[in-house]
Every structure is written in structure tokens, then in C-alpha cells.
Design goal:
It contains 8 helices and 7 strands; from the N terminus they run ββαβααββββααααα. It has about 325 residues and is an alpha+beta fold. It folds into 2 domains: about 260 residues, CorA soluble domain-like (Beta Polymerase, domain 2), CATH 3.30.460; about 60 residues. The protein has a 7-stranded mixed β-sheet with strand order 2-1-3-7-6-5-4, with helices on both faces. Strand 1 and strand 2 form a beta hairpin. The longest helix has about 60 residues. It comes from Streptomyces millisiae. InterPro entries: CorA_cytoplasmic_dom, CorA_TM1_TM2, MgTranspt_CorA/ZnTranspt_ZntB.
Length: about 325
């Protein structure tokens, strides 16, 4: 599946035309073409590479999954690898969508490996700023990067909300809740680590694109790319703070469990001490030697009274110390 667009003189001229017509349009001065490939076959990718003069290493990276976000410079083009990020509302897990981009002086070629990136939203951004389409490929690339970075903010906001919900459950009672907090904390920490691997390299990608030696970003587009760069920095800093916050939640959860265990141990120890008193007294009166009240009801009454008095005294003593 392929989608195409043709811009000439800063205006959208044609859309969804056959891929075979692209060489004819590129021969015209002032023409800019966007080509989007969705899950292309290796043969189709090779044909596009031959047509646009794309380096074989860039084609190899575009065909493989799991690439690190980066930008590579070649003689006739630049290759950019990036990710779109969304958060599943049901499972709360991050969903990564890999994207490969080839940037030539007259063409922007995007290679999507799944449907996680909503390309229609990117088209809407291009259509909302017709005054900037005259900036050519640099403007098209800005709309794409701006869409990806905005997705980072949505994902990190939902992660922040999930962490706040987790904090509300920290002091809830019940073993089931404690296990849920532990499991959810580890899931969020894992998601943040994966999210950081995607967001952090994007700083260098956007910063490299703004270098004048690349001739991708024209002077009127510099403020727009600077805005994208600032958003990437904010998303990165937000991610780092959330990592620290999840770590604090996990440590707090362990501390709460340790405190609860201490409270339980104090209660068990207090009741064990109270139970030890009648055990010691009955054991003393049960010896086979004469003692005060031996063989008389006085001995039974005195031992019983001693058990009651000692038990009550210990109970209130432990209660006063907040052990019971």
C-alpha cells in the first residue's frame, strides 16, 4: 500500500497518484513529492531505493525492525529512524510504532511497519499550514516530527496519571492491593525505561536536523524545529522525573510493608508475653513441692488472682505503648 502527494510551488497539486509517475514529477523544477509505504515488500523497497538513489545500508535499516532512533547522512539523502508512541487504555502498556524516513532534496519517503502512526493526522497538519508548504521537504518533515513528539506528551501524561493512581493505592489495606501495587509499579517502570529509549535519542535527531550543513531546515523553519526540540527536551525531563517517582513509589511500598510487618510482630510479641504469664504461674504452682496454699483452695484462688492481675497489667502496658 502506498500513498502519494505532489507539491508544486508551495501548493498541493495531486494526491494518490501512481508511484510510477514520481520520476516524471521530480523532473519538474520546484516539485516536492511525498511517498508513504505501508509494510512494503523487500522488492518494492528495493525499487524505490534504485529510483531515488538510496544507499543500500539505509534500505537495510528501513527493512529491519528494532532500529534505534537516529539520523544517518548519506551523499544523496538522509535516513531517519523514529518511533510513534501510544498507550493502550485497557492494558496501560506502551505501544511502539517504528517509522523509517528518507529525506531527499525533492522527496520525503516514509516507511511504516504497522498502523500505529496515524498518517492522516500528519496530513491534517500539512493542510493546516499552507503558507509553509513552499519550504518543501523541510516543512513536510517538521509536520511528521511534530506529530510524533505530540504523541510523546500524550503518552507521558497518561503515565503520570497512572503513577498518581498508584500513589493513591499505597496506603490501602489488604494483601491483594499490595500485590497489585507491586505489579503495577514494575510495569510502569518497565514502560518508562522503554519510553526513555525512544525519547532520549530524539534530542540528537532534531538537533542534527537543524544544522545548516544538512540543508534540510530553511531559515523560516528554524523556529518551528526549535519548538519541536524544546518539546522533546520537556518530554525527556518529564520521563526522567517519572522514573524517579516510580522508584520512590516502589521504595515507599516496601517501607509500608516493613512497617506493617513490624506492627504485626509487636502485636504477636505482646500476646505471646501475655500468654507466657499464666503459663509460668500455672507451671510454678504445678510443681511437686509444698508451696503457700499447697493442697488448699487458697492456692488456687491466689494463683488465679495472680494470673488475672498480671495479664491485665501487661495488656494495658502494651496498649499504652501502642503495641496492641
Amino acid at each position: 500500500m502506498a500513498r502519494t502527494r505532489l507539491y508544486r510551488g508551495g501548493s498541493l497539486v495531486r494526491e494518490d497518484f501512481p508511484v510510477g509517475d514520481i520520476p516524471e514529477y521530480l523532473a519538474e523544477a520546484g516539485s516536492v513529492v511525498w511517498l508513504d509505504l505501508y509494510r512494503p515488500e523487500p522488492e518494492a523497497l528495493d525499487r524505490v531505493g534504485r529510483e531515488f538513489g538510496i544507499h543500500e545500508l539505509a534500505l537495510e535499516d528501513a527493512g529491519k525492525e528494532g532500529q534505534r532512533p537516529k539520523i544517518d547522512r548519506y551523499r544523496a539523502h538522509e535516513f531517519l529512524s523514529a518511533y510513534g508512541v501510544t498507550m493502550d487504555r485497557r492494558s496501560g502498556e506502551l505501544v511502539m510504532s517504528e517509522l523509517a524516513v528518507f529525506v531527499t532534496p525533492q522527496a520525503l519517503i516514509t516507511v511504516r511497519k504497522d498502523d500505529g502512526i496515524h498518517i492522516d493526522d500528519v496530513l491534517a497538519r500539512w493542510d493546516d499550514a499552507p503558507e509553509l508548504t513552499a519550504q518543501g521537504v523541510g516543512f513536510l518533515l517538521h509536520g511528521l516530527l511534530d506529530h510524533l513528539v505530540d504523541g510523546y506528551f500524550v503518552a507521558v501524561q497518561r503515565l503520570d496519571d497512572s503513577i498518581e493512581d498508584l500513589e493513591d493505592q499505597l496506603f490501602a489495606e489488604g494483601a491483594t492491593v499490595v500485590r497489585q501495587v507491586q505489579r503495577r509499579a514494575y510495569e510502569l517502570r518497565k514502560s518508562l525505561v522503554e519510553f526513555r529509549r525512544v525519547v532520549l535519542p530524539m534530542r540528537e535527531v532534531v538537533n542534527t536536523l537543524m544544522r545548516p550543513t544538512l540543508h534540510v531546515v530553511s531559515e523560516p523553519l528554524v523556529p518551528y524545529y526549535q519548538d519541536v526540540y524544546d518539546h522533546v527536551l520537556r518530554a525527556t525531563e518529564w520521563t526522567e522525573s517519572l522514573r524517579d517517582l516510580v522508584g520512590s513509589v516502589m521504595e515507599t511500598n516496601l517501607s509500608i510493608q516493613a512497617n506493617r510487618m513490624n506492627e504485626i510482630m509487636k502485636q504477636v510479641t505482646s500476646w505471646a508475653a501475655i500468654i507466657a504469664v499464666p503459663t509460668a504461674i500455672t507451671g510454678f504452682y504445678g510443681q511437686n513441692l509444698p508451696f503457700p496454699g499447697f493442697g488448699d483452695h487458697v492456692g488456687l484462688l491466689s494463683s488465679s488472682a495472680l494470673i488475672v492481675v498480671a495479664t491485665v497489667l501487661l495488656f494495658f502496658a502494651f496498649r499504652r505503648q501502642d503495641w496492641l
